[in-house]
């Protein structure tokens, strides 16, 4: 789904894909069923007026963006400083 032609709302598109966990979850038994996945991608693409292969690529790009954003947030919360020990003080 090219930028110019992309008329679908990402939330609606993702909701549609989430109905079929075997499209993205490798733990699902049907994940390896290429014919079924191709058929479902074609259906999803048809619902959003795009070919199935474009729908699949669009989902992959959204997925990469989410992971990249998550990684950047995690990196931003790290200080980079190692742990320090408190100095022991003499107590009288």
TrEMBL record:
Coiled-coil ranges (or none): none
Domain MADF, first and last residues per copy: 12-92
A matching Pfam family: MADF_DNA_bdg
Source taxon at top rank: Eukaryota
Gene Ontology CC: nucleus; transcription regulator complex
UniProt GO BP: regulation of transcription by RNA polymerase II
Region entry Disordered, spans: 70-92
PANTHER family, A to Z: MADF DOMAIN TRANSCRIPTION FACTOR, SI:CH73-59F11.3
This protein's name: MADF domain-containing protein
Top-level taxonomy: Eukaryota, Metazoa, Ecdysozoa, Arthropoda, Hexapoda
